[in-house]
Amino acid sequence: MSSVDDLEQALVKQAVEKIEAKLGAQKTSDPKMKDMIAIVERFIKKQDLVCYGGTAINNILPEEAQFYDKKTEIPDYDFYSPTALEHAKHLADEFYENGYSEVEAKSGMHHGTYKVFVNFVGIADITQLDPTLFKNIRAEAIKVDGILYAPPNLLRMGMHLELSRPEGDVSRWEKVSKRLALLNKHHPFKAEDCSPNQAMLPFQTPKGPKGPKRFMQSPTADEIEHEGAPESKEVRLFRAVRNAFIDQDLVFFGGYAISQYARYLPRPEKALFAQIPHFDVLSVEPEASAGKLKERLEDNDFKGIVVTKHSGIGEIVPEHYEIAVGKMPIAFIYKPVACHSYNVVQAGKRRVRIASTDTMMSLYLAMLYTDKPYYDAARILCMCKQLHDIQQRNRLKQTGLLRRYGATCYGNQETLDDIKAKKSEKYQQLKRSDPEFEEWFLKYAPMEHFEHVYNAKKHKLTVKRSPNAKSVAKIVAKSVAKSAAKSATKSAAKSATKSVAKTKKAKKSKKTKKNLINKLFKIVI
């Protein structure tokens, strides 16, 4: 392309930006649009919900660092709720009660996400969140002008998750990386305790009646990889676990992975991650992987192997399996929620899959907001802080373990076609009367509920104004009761009339029969 072509394209881009800014300014200055935004903001404040996404990142930044121009861009509110479906309908009702007739709440493409449209404009996205996660996230939320915004670590988690999925929407990577840099600058990582004891806790057994916790000294990565040297029982155990996972081509993202990244830390900090407290890995078939590890350990004469399944928490923390030797956990196997990036490194004579820093950060930051007893928040923050520092020191290195934006990934990345197929399958499975049907296929228009005509036995009730849902329910219930009472009265009167008629008919029949007998008697005489 010639320099003239480049200049022409620059002119086109400039013209587009100018026109978009003009049209955006018209929308943001529209009184109706201002009122719609105000209704959403009042609703979020009143319901004590938590915003996330681009608007949340923008609004917790200093004004001079914000990337949205409020004069030309309409805020896109995404927020979490422990009862998203009900809140979607409630918000739709709020708009209708404020005089908006074209209002609809619908299920989003992803299960558990609902969109509210007003005058055919998507005004809010509401996402279902596990109640425990919601409570913990709200406890750390940042309040700005009365609205709660997700804490920086959760916003970081979401961006690292996007950057860890090369089979996802990579067109967003440039925008996401810029926002992540802004967030890290103005809300830096805070890890209060990164002492050796905190950074790499050894294995421990629960406190028993006879005394305090007993600790098992975990080996270092060098001890595990240096095969052939005299080895302790702990080294033999850890080596067996590591090799079993390598043989299954699983992706490491826990203590063992951190020990590989530690080589890029300054010498004083490197010692923090010398020991490996346990293994965390990704497996598309976690149950089968746990079974194979159990067999491998039993073949190596280890006894008391216990496998425990832990359910996932929404789409934040995936389903996982804990493997323990006696009461000491040695490994956690997680099912990936997407196709996560990883790199391959040489460890001794073996090639090992190590999760990228973005994959590790997304998985570990999600664990901060659970109530799982085996997640240590201080240690997780310490590990994430060190990973972040490694990223920052090696931002331009795209080779080996430090490759950040690679195309290689592990797991199944759900596509738009997959989502549509799943929804189609659910539509065939569920009946409209099933409570789950509305979760998947919500289509709620307040007009159909507020301005409706109720027909019951020729009794017509018309609600012309826009009362709230409770008022409508009372009116309809009263009407039904009144109609039922009238129906019962009519039915009783009709039954009484029939009874009288039946009695008269019986008397008449008896009289006729008597006259006939008398006539016959006379004939006989």
UniProtKB/TrEMBL annotation:
Keywords: ATP-binding, mRNA processing, Nucleotide-binding, Transcription, Transferase, Virion
GO BP terms, alphabetized: mRNA processing
Biased composition (Low complexity): 487-500
InterPro entries found in the cross-reference section: PolyA_pol_cat_su
Entry keyword annotation includes Transferase: yes
Compositionally biased residues, Basic residues: 501-511
Residue span, Poly(A) polymerase catalytic subunit domain: 39-166
Coiled-coil regions listed in the entry: none
Any one GO cellular component localisation term in the record: virion component
GO MF terms held by the record: ATP binding; transferase activity
Region (Disordered): 194-217, 487-511
Cell compartments where the protein resides: Virion
Protein name, as recorded: Poly(A) polymerase catalytic subunit domain-containing protein
Organism for this UniProt entry: viral metagenome
